[in-house]
């Protein structure tokens, strides 16, 4: 943990600028996105509310930064957990945003610290239908509706369903959620990700028959699919 400085600007619900000039991306979370100068990019629902909440928490307050993986991204932003000094105590910014339904868990294979706590907070916010969880834009999608998922290609989604078949082929593992793999939803685990599963003592093939929730970016390659780059993208809801 290191002293970061004072927050002088809040860019959106998961990015701030410190008085040192350092831009901090709140790793482990994804808040609703603002256009931020991108032509034709619509603001996601509750993006302004998320920014406002982070401003209320952190603007003009000193913070400490904690790192649990890769520390700098390609935009030279610090990838950190941020702890805000408020009335003699520290508030973990990521947890605050997730617990209030103003961000969801969003992880990377090289940055996976503290995810269990964030998943728990997200679950509580979702159960209470706080913030984004009361908006259809962020609804959990059904894996058995591939036509609906195809319309969401290019978007980050949470998809829930039962794995019909888990199989390994050509160095990849496929989690198939329907009988027609060229049409139905699929989770694809590439070889580098499989090594992470092995390190954690997990076998993706054991997910056959399990009810799971997968989060990630939807693409369209032989039907809708999500590439799984690390184990935390999969939440096991029931083994059978």
Mean pLDDT: 96
Mass-distribution shape:
globular
Helical segment count: 5
The total tally of domains equals 2
Keywords: Endonuclease, Hydrolase, Nuclease
Pfam family, one: SNase
GO molecular function, one term: endonuclease activity
Domain TNase-like: 5-135
Key descriptive features of the protein:
240 residues; alpha+beta; OB fold (Dihydrolipoamide Acetyltransferase, E2P); 2 domains; eight-stranded mixed β-sheet; five-stranded mixed β-barrel; 19% helix; hydrolase; hydrolase activity
Give a description of the structure.
The protein is of the alpha+beta class. It has five helices and 16 strands. The protein has helices at 47-58, 93-99, 115-127, 146-150, 191-199, and strands at 2-12, 15-18, 23-26, 28-30, 62-66, 78-86, 89-92, 104-106, 141-142, 156-162, 165-169, 172-176, 186-189, 211-220, 224-228, 234-238. Strands 9, 10, 11, 12, 13, 14, 15 and 16 form an eight-stranded mixed sheet that branches. A five-stranded mixed beta barrel has the order 1-2-3-6-5. Strands 4-8 form a two-stranded antiparallel ribbon. Helix 2 runs parallel beside helix 3 (115-127). The longest helix is centred in the middle third of the chain and has 13 residues, at 115-127. The protein starts with a strand and ends with a strand. The relative contact order is 0.12.
